[in-house]
Specification:
By secondary structure, this protein is of the alpha+beta class. The protein has helices at residues 29-42, 75-84, 104-122, 143-149, 175-185; strands spanning 2-4, 8-14, 17-25, 48-55, 61-65, 90-97, 125-127, 131-138, 154-160, 164-171, 190-195. The model has no long low-confidence stretch (mean pLDDT 94).
Length: 205
């Protein structure tokens, strides 16, 4: 699976109707919905705010909304554009200002598909990197050396009590290497647990 690297915007005009396409990478369904709402608020006077998103490491969560356009003529072409490019963790919103000339069903399909695909060509498609969370519990005496060894990774949480507890986000293909290094640095005086986190659970449409 792949995703996009950046947020991009592309504008086209077809028979006096203006189509403004927004693409953004997201991590959760919640983030996708929030982005769609933000675009709606940015263009409150637009005729339509058509949207589609695909989220999840296996593209498990997908949704599209015609927002008043005839069913199957707008959001589905956008969704198909994302799906055919094997994308996930991506949201697309196409804002339409009606120009007074009706495009017909076929014209709408072509317009929305073109709006999404042209925007996608301006973005950078990158492979999905899957991550695991590593939970660590260790004595304060190892804190500095462990934190230095993890400087290339995102520390999600720090808790300081009797011992130090860290939660670190690590690419799956580096988990074993990180664990081996932590065991070596602490002479195995460390508790390590590896787990996955699915932020989209219970959020599926």
């Amino acid at each position: 699976m792949f995703t996009i690297k950046d947020e991009t915007v592309n504008t086209i005009e077809i028979d006096k109707s203006v189509f403004i396409s927004y693409l953004k990478n997201v991590s959760t369904v919640k983030d996708a919905r929030a982005y769609i709402q933000a675009i709606k608020e940015k263009y409150p006077d637009a005729t339509h705010h058509v949207s589609a998103y695909i989220v999840g490491k296996g593209a498990e969560y997908g949704h599209y909304d015609d927002d008043g356009e005839p069913s199957g003529t707008s959001a589905m072409p956008i969704f198909d554009c994302l799906r055919k490019n094997n994308l996930t963790n991506v949201v697309c919103v196409v804002v339409r200002y009606f120009g007074g000339i009706k495009l017909g069903a076929g014209g709408l399909v072509r317009a929305y598909s073109r709006s999404a695909s042209e925007n996608l060509r301006t973005n950078v498609i990158v492979p999905i990197i899957e991550y695991s969370m590593i939970s660590l519990n260790f004595n304060y005496s190892y804190y500095t050396v462990i934190e230095n060894s993890l400087k290339s990774y995102e520390i999600i949480n720090r808790t300081f009590s009797t011992n130090v507890d860290l939660v670190v986000k690590v690419p799956d293909h580096e988990v074993n290497m990180v664990i081996d290094n932590l065991v070596r640095l602490t002479n195995n005086f460390i508790q390590i647990k590896v787990f996955k986190q699915d932020n989209n659970k219970d959020e599926c449409e």
